[in-house]
Structures are given as C-alpha cells and as structure tokens.
Amino acid sequence: MYSNKFSRLVLGLYGRKRSAVSGAVQSAAGRSGFSWTAVCKQRSLRLQRSSCPEVQHHALSSQISTRSASQTTVDPDEVRRFQSLASKWWDEQGEFAALHAMNDLRVPFIRDNLLNVHRARHPGKPLAGLRILDVGCGGGLLTEPLGRLGANVLGIDPVEDSICTAQLHASYDPDLRDWVSYRACTLEELSAEGEEEQGAGHFDAVVASEVVEHLADLETFAFCCSHVVKPGGSLFITTINKTNLSYALGIVVAEQLLRIVPSGTHDWEKFISPVELERLLESNGFSVQSVQGMLYNPVSGAWSWTNSTAINYALHAVKLRDDPQPDQAEESNPHPEDHTAATHS
C-alpha cells in the first residue's frame, strides 16, 4: 500500500520537477543569505598579500582566528536536537536507519574518487596512507568504514555525547584502534589550530555527509574546509537540494508521513542547490569534479544513484594546487554553467 502511494506521489511530483527546480534556483540567491561580495573581497585580499611565506602564514592564521571568533558553523538548536539522539546512532532500525543504508553509496563514492586522485594501490586497504577528516561524524557511521579501508580518519562533532557513542562503538573493534580517532570540537576550532598536529593543510580529504543542511554558516564551513585540506586534496559532501520536490519528499513525506527521520530534523531554508554549493566552493579555492543524484526508497530502505539531483546529491571537489587570479580562473573555465547544466538534470 505504501509502495503504491509513494510511487504515485513521486511520479506526480516529478512531473512538476522542472518548474520547481527552476523556481528554487532562481530565488535561491535572494534567500540564501550568502554574501558573495564579502567572499570575493576576502579572496582578493589573500591574493594581494606578500609572497613571503611567514607573512602569508601569519595573515591566514589571523584571518582564521578572527573568523572563528566571530562566526560559527554551529546552530545551537541543531546541537540540542542531536544531543537527544546521541545514544541512538548505532540502532540500524532506528532514527538513523537511512544513514546506515546510505553507506552503500557514499563509501564507494569516496573510495573510488580518492583512488582516481591517488594512484597508489594497497590491496585490502585501498585508502592506506590517506588522512581523512569526517566533519559532523555523529556516532561514527561513516568514520568506521573509511577506517576499515585503511585511511587514518579523524571524526569531529560538536555534540560531545555523540563523540562518546562513537568512541565506545569503535572500542569494540581493536582493528580500528590505529585508524580511527575522535574529537568533540567544531571545524572552525580545528582549523584555527594552524600548523599544529591537526593543523592547516593536514588532510588528504574532508568528508561532510548529511551535515551542511544543519550548519549555521556555510561560508565559514567552506573557508575552513579549504584551510584544513591539502592542495590537491578532496572534499566530499552529500546533502539535500533546495527544491519543492525536496520539501515534499524530504520533509512532508520522510518526517511527517512515513517518519523515516524524526520530525523537525530538517529545515528547508538550510537546503542548498548544487549550483549554489559549487559557486561557494569555487570561491574558496575548490574545483567541483562531479555531482551525482541520490534517491532513497522508503519501502526497500535502500539508496540508489539517479540522474536527478532534485532531492539528494553527492558532490566531489578538489582543492586547487594554485590560487589563480579571478580572471585566470574565468579564462580556464569560460563557461562555468556548462558543467552544472549537464549534471543538474
């Protein structure tokens, strides 16, 4: 019964997808609250700094500290919500069942893209030698499988009880001891540590899966990701598009009708389109390599890849090795809309 109703709902909503997506994208800039002018000015200031490494390091450290002190990615309401769920992360039939199932897509997505960037092969431990930061790791649902692939993974989360859950669960598997570690902190706090043990440019990859739709400040998030990842390193994001279809299925159906996730888990105003996210990342020194749609079937409880990014999507970006002038970046990609037009169908 649920299967037939859900199928009819999806077909009906997909019939109106094009106008819904168009309306959301056209109005996104006005509702997003992003300050692209401020981002561009900050980028220009960085480019105009002295070429002396000591001056650059001091200036960047100062900029990170100032930004961390005045802006934060943490939304207190989100922290309270996840605090109440901190003991339930590893209940595969509970509130996070969809996240457990998502590992079937997101783990291979991360693994395969990293192997395309890093050619070294390690049989049995394909990600050996790579250092990964899992931002908003929760109870470690994604941290652990990445560790089992051989990566050295640090999971961070502002909810201390979630970190305790993650540490406790990892302790049951001695094989994870050398590969996985956790810290109760924010991304901006880690970023502000500079060149210390967990400092700037320390990670081969940063992962933020089902995280950005819960953050208070995406500009600070993108800025700090760029700071902690190595040049040539990767950024992986899975999140929810900002469309009428994502509201209908991601909030009305998933939260209110089928109760796949707790009511109030998502705020549609925090969703972001692939186009917006790509612009934000590119303004912070990343080049988006791929964007792929994801679809959850609440009947089977399984995820699958889809050509449409109207609801959920996964994104892979790489931090540029050089910091080109804005006009050079435009020359290297004279038609930035081509990629998004081809991918965001």
Throw out a few tags for this protein.
alpha/beta; 345 residues; disordered C terminus; 46% helix; 3-demethylubiquinone 3-O-methyltransferase activity; single chain; Rossmann fold; disordered N terminus; metal ion binding; SAM-dependent_MTases_sf; 3-demethylubiquinol 3-O-methyltransferase activity; 14 helices; eight-stranded mixed beta sheet
Explained architecture:
There is one protein chain. With 345 residues, the chain is an alpha/beta fold. It has a domain at 76-241 and 267-319: Vaccinia Virus protein VP39 (Rossmann fold), CATH 3.40.50.150. It has 14 helices and eight strands. It has helices at residues 2-15, 17-32, 36-47, 53-70, 76-83, 97-117, 143-148, 160-171, 187-191, 218-228, 244-257, 274-282, 326-332, 337-343; strands at 131-135, 152-156, 180-183, 203-209, 229-240, 286-297, 302-306, 312-319. The chain has an eight-stranded mixed β-sheet. Residues 1-70, 324-332 and 334-345 have low confidence and may be disordered. It is found in: Mitochondrion inner membrane. This is Ubiquinone biosynthesis O-methyltransferase, mitochondrial. Residues 332-345 have a biased composition (Basic and acidic residues).
